[in-house]
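Checklist before submission:
- one chain only
- standard amino acids only
- sequence pasted in full

Submission:
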Amino acid sequence: QLQLVESGGGLVQPGGSLRLSCAASGFTLGSYAIGWFRQAPGKEREGVSCIRFSGDSTNYADKGKGRFTISRDNAKNTVYLQMNSLKPEDTAIYYCAARRYSCSDNALIYNYWGQGTQVTVSS
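Returned file contents:
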């Protein structure tokens, strides 16, 4: 069964850090771009970051630039999202998604999705 599983979410104070992981099972991530998306209560899902299958290209939404870093370890079949200097407005469920090769801002064309991990930034 093809599956993505996110982990690493939790409760953190403003200014804190979290590292999210997106692990694949049932398939190899090596030929897939991985995107991170998030959805806060009452808001639409939005893109956060993406990394191309080869790892040679990444992109970030303006909200996370300079604070978030996406990376991948194909040997571990895992993609990471390091989030620093977290703000209350970063509170959301974070999802990872996979599609062949290249990144896209269009969440609808990603083929595989995880169940999400909750990130809460609060004092």
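Reviewer check: DSSP finds no helices and eleven strands in the chain.
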